[in-house]
Amino acid sequence: MFEMLSDFARDFSQIDSNSMTVLIVMVGWATLLVNVGVDSKSFTAIFVPGMFLGGMAAFYVTRLAMISISASKDINAIMISVAGIVAGFLLTLMLLQLYHWVLDQRRALTMDERN
Fold it and tell me: Can you tell me the distance from the alpha carbon of 16 to that of 59, in angstroms, rounded to the nearest whole number?
């Protein structure tokens, strides 16, 4: 288990600075778009870690599986970042929906709702 975690950390640390810069810029733009869409800074702050970790996980998976979308390294970094950010956004959205569903199920029913 420890060896798997150390391999995971080593692979994350091997992401080059150009790809990391592209990811950070793309997450910044995605954060701005989410903030404009929902007009709430606290709600936007919930999505930022999910989008960043989604982008990092996309870089990890493509490196692990040796997947290359484009011959150009820059285009490849942009496409991987976008795919990871979208996946992270959707995963965060699903986790929020699950959280609200669980809270709804545990909420006590009022007399009007029981009838």
Answer: 10
